Amino acid sequence: MPYTARFTPETLSRAQVDAQTGPLVLEFGTDWCGHCQGAQPLIEAAFARAGQDTPHLKVEDGRGRPLGRSFGVKLWPTLVFLKDGQEQARLVRPHDADAIAQALGQLSA
Length: 109
Prior knowledge:
Blueprint: E1 8-9, H1 14-18, E2 23-29, H2 34-50, E3 56-60, H3 66-70, E4 78-83, E5 86-92, H4 97-108
Parallel strand pairs: 1-3, 2-3
Antiparallel strand pairs: 2-4, 4-5
Helix pairs in contact: 2-4
């Protein structure tokens, strides 16, 4: 399953993200964020329901982190759905697994 359970320090630059081919979901937040923790069951369920191999990268975000700033992230969690490096959808503090699944579906269309 492509769902990633823990946030990791950013390892990609914006140029590397823009150069990615295929689908990719970036999730910006932190492991200690209550909103992030609350959204995890929804995100995991949406990925399981979608049944696709879309990579999910949880990027540890914070002040001065360039990748999150390049996407204009202000609230956590923020999910950015990309296809071939282009943003297709964005969800901020999602409260609905269906909305996440719908955004994932846009990546396979």
